[in-house]
Structures are given as C-alpha cells and as structure tokens.
Amino acid sequence: MSKALIDIIKQKFPADVLESHSQRGDDTVVVYAARWKDIARFLKDDPRADMSMLIDLTAVDYPERTPRFEVVAHLYSLSKGHRLRLKARVGDQAGTSVEIDSVADLWASANWAERECWDMFGVRFKGHPDLRRILLYPEFEGHPLRKDYPADRIQPLVPYREVPNVDKVAPFRADEGMSFGRQTFASGPSTDDDDVN
Amino acid sequence: MPSFKLDDIDIPFEPGDTVIRAAQRVGVDIPHYCWHPGLSVAANCRMCLVEIEPPPGRPAMMLDVLAWDAEKHEYVPQKKPKLQPACQFAAADGLVVKSQSSQHATRARSAVQELLLLNHPVDCPICDQAGECRLQDYWLEHQHTKKRMKDEPVHKPKGVVFGPTIVYDAERCIVCTRCVRFCDEVAKDPVLSVRERGNLNEIVVSPGRKLDHPYTLMTEYVCPVGALTAVDFRFKARVWFLRSARTVCVGCATGCNSFTDFDPRTQEVYRYRPRENKAVNQYWMCDEGMLDHRRIGQGRVLHALVGGKPSQRDAALARAADLFVSAPPETTAVVLSAEHSLEDNFALLELARDGLKTQNVYFTGRAPGQGDNVLRDADKNPNTNGVKKLAPNAKPFAELVKAADEGKLTHVLALGSQAPADATALGKIKHLVALATHEGPFQAHAAIVLPAASWAEAEGTFVNRQGTTQESERAVTPRGDSRPAFRWVHELRLALDRPPAWKKLGELRAAMQPASAAATGARP
Amino acid sequence: MEPIDQELDPAEIELPAEPMLLNVGPAHPAMHGTVRIVMELSGESIERCDVQVGYLHRGFEKMCERGTWTQVFPYVDRCNYVSPMLNNVGFALACEKMLGITVPERCQWYRMALGELARMSDHLTCDGAMAMELGAFTPFLWMIKGREMIWDLMEEETGARLTHSFGRVGGMAHPPTAGFKENAKAVTTHILGIIEEVERLLLGNRIFLDRLEGVGVVSAEDAISLGWTGPCLRACGVAYDVRKSHPYLRYDEVEFEVPVGQAGDSFDRFMVRIAELKQSASIVRQCIERMADTGPVNVTDPRVILPPKEEVYSTIEGTIQHFKIVMEGLKLPAGEVYAYSEGGNGEMGFYLVSDGSGTPYRLRIRPPCFYVTGGLERVITGAMMADVVPSFGSLNMIGGECDR
Amino acid sequence: MGALKETSPDVLATGAGEGFVTTKFNDLLAWAQKYSLFMYPFVTACCGMEFMAVSSPRYDFSRFGSEAPRFSPRQSDLLWVVGTIVQRQAPILRRIYEQLAEPKWVLAFGTCASCGGFYDNYACVAGVDKIIPCDIYVPGCPPRPEAVLDGLMLLQDKIQRGDRRPAIVKPRADPAQDQSLGLVQLRRSSTRPAV
Taking CB atoms and an 8 Å limit, are D124 and C148 in contact across chains? Predict the structure, then answer.
C-alpha cells in the first residue's frame, strides 16, 4: 500500500535509511537513530506522508546484537489511511547508554509511550518533558522487559509478613474449608468433612 | 572439489561420499531413520528417498504406477520417476538431486511415514523418547495427515528385557536395524538380530544371550524411536524439561565428549548422551561412562569434616589454615589428583610452590580398571596426562604411602578421593587435609575434609589420553557445602594470607595457559 | 512521585493557602482502584494535575515471553477484561496474519458475533458505571442486567462468564452451540429494550445532562495527537473505526454506521457508546443470519490447530499432533507483524516479534486505554474538581489494559 | 423476641416458656456482626467485573447483610480485596487494612488476591496474605458469584464461631467425581457438533 512511502523516505533521506522491507503487508523502515526525529517530523509534516497519529511506540531487546535495542514506532495517517513502522537501533551491549531523541513534541501520544519505553527498557529519550517511570514505582531498580531481567525478581515496597507458611496458601485442613451444613451455632471448628481436599 | 546440486544448493563432497553424508556435512538434513553416520548403510527405512535427475540426454528411469483419479473414480496408469535412497546413492559430480523440491519425494516420505505409524501404539504420553522422537518430528515435517487405517493395529511384545540395561518395545520399533548394526560393527558383539518379516518383524536377542556387552546403552542412543529404552532413564524425566551442558566424561582417560542432561528445577543430573567428536569418541560412549552420572549423587562428601565430625565450612577452613600457616616446608606435601581438572590441580600446585614453598608433590587417582580397543581405557582417570604434564616431577602414590609410612610427612593437603592402592598408611600423617568429592581413603584418614564440587558442578579442563585438552561446562550447582576445589584453594590462600594472583576462573585459566599449552599442544 | 500521604510539618497544620494539593486515588471509588491523580487546586478548579497509572501493572508482556503462543490467550483475556473476546479475536488475528492463514467463513462470522457481543458488554459497563458515578444507580443496575444476559450467552458458548480464553490460532476452541443464534437474537432484543429504558431515564435528566454536557471537552486535533482511538476519538467527530477504515474478518460485508459526536465532551462519549450498542446489536443480527449452521470452524492445517480429543486418545497421529502443539507450541515464522482490530476502547494492536520458535520473542499490545488515559491530564486541567469523575468515567479506562 | 405477655412468676424465675430467647452474649454479638458487615471494596482488576455482578440484583449479596459499601476504611469491617495486588499497590492496601477498625475481616476475592494466580513475576504480590492477614480465600479467575456468596457465608460461619483461622472456598462437589461433567472419561458423546 504505502510502498511509495518507503521510496519517499529513501529519496528524502538517502543516507539515513539502514534497511526497509514490507513483511506481510507491514512496511518497515529502519533509520539511523541520529536522524530519528528529523525523519519523524518529515513524516508528520510532509503532505504525501501526513502521519497524523503515532499509534504506538515501543522497543525490542536483542541482547546479542549491537546496537542492542530496536525502538519501534507505528505511524498512521488518518487522511491517507496508510501505516508505517519506523525503527531505529540504539544502545550498547551493557544497555547503560541507550539514547534517542524524543518525539513527544510532535505527537502528544509519544509522551506516555516514551515514558513506558524508558520504564520497561531503559531507553532514554532526549528532550522528553518529564521522563519518569510510569507503570512501575520509582523505587524499582532495573528495566523488567530487558531479556536479562529475571521475570520473577520482585522488589517489594512493603516488608512481607513475618508469619510461617506465609509464602504458601494457608494450610487448609478438612475443618477449615467451606462448611456445607451451615452449623451456625456450633462452637469451635465445624466437624463435617464432606469437602474435597 | 567436486559438487552436486541438492534442491539448488551446491553441495561439495569427497570421493566415496553418499548423497546424504555429503549433505549432512554441510548441514543440509535429508530425513532418515536407518542411516547413521557411524554405521553401515542399510537403506531399509526408505525415508531418505530423493529424486535423481537423469544425466542430460538420457531418459529418466520411470515406473508405471496406478494412481487413483478422484474425478474419474478409477485407477489410471501414471508414470513416476524411480526414487533413490540418498543414504546409499553415491554422490557424483554434477549430479542434480531433488529432495524437498520434488513432489514425488515428498509424497513418498509422507507415505513412508504413514506406513511407519500404521501399527504404532498411542504411547507418546508414557514413552521416554517423546520429545526427541524422530517419528514425532517427521510426522510434523513430512506427513501431517490423519490416520486412515481403521483396523486394529498389530500387537507385539512390550517391555521385553534385553539385558541389565535395556528394555525393548516391539510395537514402537520401526526395525531400522540401527541397534543390530551397532552391536555388530562397533561393539563387535552381534547379539541382536531381526526376526520374522513384514509388520511382524521385531528385534530379538540371540538365544541364550543377553544384551550385556559394555556398549549396550548405545543401542538405546542410536534408536531413533522409543523402541529401546534404558533402564537407567526409564520413566525418570521428560526430556523437554531437561537442559544440556557440554561436558567431558570423567569415567576414564578417553575423555569422551558428552552432553550432561539435567533438570534445571531440581538440579538433578539424569543422564549422559554422547557428543560427536570425530577425534575422540566419534559418536559413542561406553555403558560405564553413560552410567557414571550416578556417582555425582553417590557417596559424596557434602559437608566439611573436622576430625570426622561435620563442621561449618568456614570453621573447617580456618582450622586448615592454622595447620598450614606454620607448616615446615620439608615435611609438607600436596597431592594432586588425576580425577580433578587442570584448574584444581594447577591451583593446588601453585599453592605448593608459592604458598607452602614445598617441593613435595605427589599425585593420585582412581585404580586402573578394564579397557578395550573400542573406547574404554584401563586408566580410569580423566586427567592423568594433564597432571603429568602439569607437574612432571610429581611422585606417584606409592611414594606418598612410603613417605607417610616413614613419617616424613606431617602436613599434607590432598586433592581427590580415590587411591590407586592400599592407603592405610595415610593414617600416619598427622595433619592430612583432604579436598575430596567422594568418600574414600583420603576422606577416611583426613583430619579435615573440605567438600569439593564434582565434575558436573564445576567448569574444568581435562587432558585425555591422546593429549587433547577438552573443556567441560558446569551442569548443576554444587551440592551441599561443596564448591570447586580451586575455590577452596583460593580461600585457603586468603586465609593463609598468601593470596593468589587470580580471582575468577577466567584469570585462573589465563594463569594456567602456558602450563596447559605446554601440556596439550593444539586444541581441537 | 510524592509519597502516598505526605508528612505535613506543624507549621501547615491548618489547611495551606492555595494552591492546595489534593490526592485522589488509587483507592478511590471513582478511580477504579488503579489510577491516582495528584491535583493542584485553586478553590474548585484544577490548576495542574498529574495522572499516575501503573497500579495494575501485572507484567503482561514479560509473562507472554515465557509460554507458547497459545498460552498468551489467558493473558490477553485479562487485558481488557470487560470485553475479553475482542482481545482473543484480535490476538488470534495477529498470529494468523503472521502465519498467513485465514479462518473459515463460519468462524469469521462467529468471531464477529462474539466480538460485537463483547463490545456491547464493554459499552454497557462503561455507560452504566458512568451513570452510577454520577449518582444514577438504576441505569447501572439495568445495564448490568443486560450484561448478565450477554455473559450467560458467553458462558453457554465458551464455558466462562468473563475470561473465556476461547480464541485459538486458526479458529475457535469450539464451534457455536446449537442454540447460539436464538440466544443471540433474544439477548440483543432485550438489550435494545434496556437501552431505550436507560435513554428515557437519563437523557431527560437535567442533572445528568448538566454534569456531562460541555464537560471534559477535547478537540479533534488534541485527540488525534494524543493517539486516541475508538469511541473517545469518534466523540470528537473523527470517524475513525478500524472496522470501517481497514475492514478485517467480514466487516466489509455487514452494514453498520460509525456514530460520531460533535462537541467531544463527556456527553458525546456517552452517546457514542449508546449508539454503538445499537450498531453492534445490528451487526450481531447480521452475523448470525450470515453464519452457516454447519461447516468447519477451524483451519485444517494440523501444524496449527489441535486435533479433536477422540483422535488424541485413539490414534498416534492425533497424539503426535497434540503433543507437538502443546509441548513445543505452534511455531510462528520468524519475523514481525503489527495486526490491529477494533477493541472495546479503540484500535487494539498486537506487535508480535517471533524468532521462529514456539515462544514469543516479544509481544507488545497496543492498549487503546493507555493513550486515552494519557489524555486525561489535558482533559481535566482547568476543569472543576467535580468534573473529574464524569470526564474520567467517560474515558472508560480499563486498568488491566492501561497498565497491563 | 416476642412481647412479654402476662406470665406466671415461675416463668420469670426459670426463663422457660414462650417469649424468651436465651443465648450467650457473644453469640448474640457475633450474630449481629455477621449480618451487618460493612464492606470496603478494594477493587483493582478483572474480578471487579464479577464484583459488580455480585452486587447487582441478580446475585445481590445484600441478602447477607453485607450490602452497604463504605469507601472509608474507618467505617467498614470487611475488606474485599478484589483483583490483583501489584507491588506498587501493596503499601496502599496495607495502609487501608491498618485503618480498618477492629473487628475486621479480609476476603481475598479471586486467585490473584489469594495467591497471585498466574502472574508469577516481578510486578505482582503473590497473594495478599503476604502483606495482610486474610480470612477467606475465594479461588477462581474470576470466581463465579456463587463462589463469592459461598465465601461470604463461610465468613459468617466463622464470625459466628469466633474462628479466625483462614479458610478457603472449595467446590461443593469434586468435578472429577461428577460423571455428568464427563471430565474423567473420554468425551465421545459431546453435546457439540464435531468441528
């Protein structure tokens, strides 16, 4: 559909397009991170592209690659009805200096999307109004969606209760389950054991 | 180099190669059951059928077949090319082979696969092969059709005990005869053979015999389906839960390359599998080695012992340091072990040289056992060569016993668990500190025992009988308080206030390089 | 982020002079338990505000990278838990786009019918809760009654009231039941009746109108720039509906309109949902008319779809097929795809990255709520304190989808 | 308690006869408590939808006297934890629990609140009993309203019995034993047409 779109970008920024392909009908352009914002602005303003919406912005982590991260933006043009996937590759192996320009002043939707991207991947967006964590709490260390973050490493905010067996569901014996005969006035634990364990 | 075309891929080959072997060498897989690179060609599974283009100018060899015509609702004569088994067809220069690209070949494979599954029982849920079974993989890749046969499948004996290690299930068997050929060609003990024919045929053991040669488990390994199962692994684990580490077998001096399959959740080692290495073990391992994983759990020293009583590891370490801090060099000795990796031995040797300033270096190891001219070596230590080259002037165990007997030794730091000969004299040593993985003479006579991690619980480098240096990965986490011996040495040197130059394993290996390089020569 | 309740030093024990800092939520009835708004008030009007989400961030995307593609369905169910079926269908469509397969026609109609029913339950819940938060409790009860009907139908079809996990790659878990068409007809009739009642009850109500009309106005430009989609965008007069603009399934063969508002205020958002309820009802009608009573629902490729249980237990082929798909997971070809469909709150997109294995390498859901809620700050800044509740309610923020 | 009609003195002496209910004061108190549970719904996630359903006329838990929702913890004595509690939410829940006035009970609504469910990851608290004591666990993802009502009744029993041990709502019959469900034997006669 918007194969033409790729050509427009290519002839406008011949030196800055790393690669481009149309997989399964999705047109993708990978550009140099340095020109990320320029190309985004061009796509927004150019009448042929007229990308009025930033549908989504996220990142993908490829730990074995350098640059390690792919920042992926999905653009959509309400007037033209065409879409484009814009990608840029950023970041070193350690993932300490991952930086790319913010497009929050082009599309307001980028504001939260970039905050989430920073929160989840640690991609730092230069020029973002306030780059805080959004889904996780400020005390959280690390960026969970990176492949090297173990999925179950929790960072509790409140200390867990000092109760034995609190790490598993409380031990439910036969008399602790639902007492089906409603022995309302029986004192002490009910004694019927017709519930299944 | 001559080459032929397989599905438009140029495949170089060496004279005498078959199509499938040449293809496998460059990583192109032609489906096969009966063919095994280490065995002779049987060409009886017909899974590897390929279409061979006739040489230019020659007519193709065609067969007349009757094909069912759905519209006409009758059989119509058709011509189809004669397919050739790739495992038997000799590669020739300029040959044009069509495997996936030939619809005749793909249809033939689908049919073969369907035939093989015709009488197959619904066993996947209780089959140990499930998850690494050729029948499953090839069904997905080459057949993926539903069952058409409505009849009751043929029933054959299940759970036939072939020997102490192998159980046979005739219903799952596709009679590829890999096991038969293995026993015949590699183990040199033709104890298996095929009985009956057609869908009734099955593998049998020769009358009056058992499948009990030293390589029985290889028959299970070569079995592409779940027909042969190892008693050792039966119903123990599901393979898709297991992870593999690339290790080296420490059963003997051969140093067969192996995979150590373990469950990451329980950190239990379940089995070894041979790892292909043309230079060392080709594709095989011996039963002894395959079952060696049991030793990881048996008779281990898991906690530090002081005077035979369990103790905190730090306390034990402190005691050991006290012993050696003021040890007279002339009556102090260290004992290297051919059971342990170069890293452990090198660390200990370094300690003797720089830490304890002693020249008394002995070495020990497991007692020799049986060997043969297939794989097994009489020397049951994985690292004899390594230790020899590491410390050429290390004295043998006999002299250690002698010196101990004469009371020449007061302080001895000994690596390793087993002794090749009678070791009662070790009891005469006043202060014997043992870095032992297993119970044994050293652990028995030692004043202090520090639990060392076994081969599966630590990275290590071993030099096999050919002088090849091979690195073995860590599979599981050390059990109990045990830790790699070189770590113990490191901590001991810290406690002695004579710290080594290295901290991490990498640094240790770097420090070791010249020594091991001298020891080994080139690495494969 | 400032602490949950900040320590006031004794000097300002008496209420501070303005601006006054007010913290609403997350445990506030109007905040759906998962949003926190820190407002700087001067008197009644909001000078500045900071909308804080993430109180329901459950690590959806991380969890998806642990199982097989099929095991993602329960998670997407719980993203937008008011219309789970739409998520199911959306994710199934994404995977099918990756595989390059299309489901049989009957399944497409089935998916559309179920999806529209889910959309109806979504809008019913949103409008009902909105009315309740404005003090009109009766419409809430009526609409929940209507939603119960839909859920009963869903339970009949899928076996679960709310979280169905009914979608499958390449089809559905089950073909429609025998009584599906009658039930769907009956349900839609009832719900249209309920909507009329609600309209009669609310739209003549001065209080209700005054609290909605002209409140929480968003201009079309803002909405587009904020990435709004769905009812909230349409309320601003932008007729963008994925079902019309980029028809998927069979939406190009059914007749329906895309209702749009003019003012872009809370009232328009309310009315757009009401109108869409009627549209969805008619779509459901058309779907069950067009849907065949017999015929395949799932694709036939055994590498994608699970075999029927009878085969699994009786034939080795079935066992192997089941085994391969369950243990290793169906394999999606390596690559990436962005598939989008109209969710309850707008364009629900799935960005899949596959490395060719049975496990997702990266699964990103494009949550409409997230971007809609991102605009809340712009909506309520400068508004009155009391307008927060209707504005926020009309955005229909779904915690599970916004925070994931 | 019936009105006191003219009665013979021995009735007054023994307390026998009609018009009297004799009981322990604690039982009376418990009886009053269990039928006047003021609830604080801490609704976060999917289960909130079912919570709406339970509170709506069809299932209507006000029949059990736990009708009045109080959005101030200080006025309520039953804390419904409805839905997943994530690490970021935990301090708030903890504080709200602390603000509840005694006697107070906690009902974990749904699997996530009970044990974390299948959200076994960096973000979620694996069950509210990690941070606050919990009286009733209602499994289900989300639980059916009937299960919730079971939980409510179970809580009332426990209040009556003065039993503060945690309890879980269990199925009234073991599905595996219920042949009519056809779960244990191969479902050859499916009610559905074959695919």
Answer: no
| Nearest residue of A to residue C227, measured between CA atoms | A109
Residue C64 in any domain: the answer is no
Q: What is the CATH number of the domain that holds C141?
A: 1.10.645.10
- Which residues, 6 or more positions from C109, have their beta carbon under 8 angstroms from its beta carbon? C250, C287, C288, C290, C291, C292
C196 domain-assigned: yes
C-alpha atoms less than 13 angstroms from C-alpha of A3 in its C-beta half-sphere: 5
Mean pLDDT of chain B: 88
Cα-Cα-Cα-Cα torsion C379, C383, C387, C388, nearest 10 degrees, comes to 50
Q: Are B114 and B143 in contact (CB under 8 A)?
A: yes
The partner residue sitting opposite C366, judged by closest CB among A28, A56, A78, is A56
Rounded to an integer, the average pLDDT of C229-250 is: 89
Residue C119: domain span: 77-352
Nearest CB partner across the interface for C27, out of D92, D124, D191 = D92
Best residue in C317, C327, C359 for a mutation probing chain B (most B CBs within 10 Å): C317
Residue A119 pLDDT exceeds 60 = yes
Which class for B118: exposed (0-12), middle (13-18), buried (19 or more C-beta within 10 A)?
Answer: middle
- Structural domain contains residue C158: yes
Question: Mind telling me how many Å the CA of A162 is from chain D's nearest CA?
Answer: 9
Chains C and A touch, using 3 or more CB pairs below 8 Å: yes
Identify whether the C-beta of residue B147 lies closer than 8 Å to the C-beta of residue C343. no
Q: Best interface-test mutation with A: which of D157, D158, D169 has the largest number of A CBs within 10 A?
A: D157
Question: Would you say domain D32-172 falls under CATH 3.40.50.12280?
Answer: yes
Contact C151, C183 (CB under 8 A): no
Strand blocks (E) in C333-389: 335-343, 346-354, 360-366
Hey, is the C-beta of D182 within 8 angstroms of any chain C C-beta?
no
Set of chain C residues whose Cβ sits within 8 Å of the Cβ of B119: none
With beta carbons under 8 A apart, name residues in chain C contacting B139: 317, 320-321, 324
Partnered with residue A17 across adjacent β-strands are A31
CA B172 remoteness from chain centre:
25
Residue type, B299: G
What pLDDT, on a 0 to 100 scale, did the predictor assign at position D14?
61
Question: Domains plus CATH for chain A?
Answer: 3-165 (3.30.460.80)
CA angle C58, C60, C62 (to 5 degrees): 110
Q: B402-413 pLDDT, tens per residue?
A: 888 888 888 889
Probe site for chain B from C303, C306, C312, C320 (most B CB atoms < 10 A): C320
- Distance, in Å, from the CA atom of C1 to the CA atom of D30, rounded to the nearest integer, reads 43
Number of Cβ atoms within 10 Å of the Cβ of A82: 18
Kindly state whether residue C286 falls inside one of the protein's structural domains.
Answer: yes
- Residue B428, Cβ density class (10 Å: 0-12 exposed, 13-18 middle, ≥19 buried): middle
Cβ D56 vs Cβ D93: under 8 Å: no
- B146–C318 CB contact, under 8 Å: yes
* End-to-end CA, chain C: 20
- The answer for residues whose C-beta is within 8 angstroms of residue B309's C-beta and 6 or more apart is none
pLDDT for D125-171, tens place per residue? 888 888 888 888 888 888 988 888 888 888 888 888 877 777 788 77
C336, β-bridge pairs: C353
Q: Quote the radius of gyration of chain C (alpha carbons, Å).
A: 22
Digit-coded pLDDT (tens) for C7-32: 656 565 565 556 778 888 787 777 77
Domains delineated in chain B: 3-143 (3.10.20.740), 160-296 (3.30.70.20), 305-520 (3.40.50.740)
pLDDT band at C275 (very low <50, low <70, confident <90, very high): very high
Contact D53 C148 (CB under 8 A): yes
Q: Which of A78, A81, A136 sits opposite C224 (nearest CB)?
A: A78
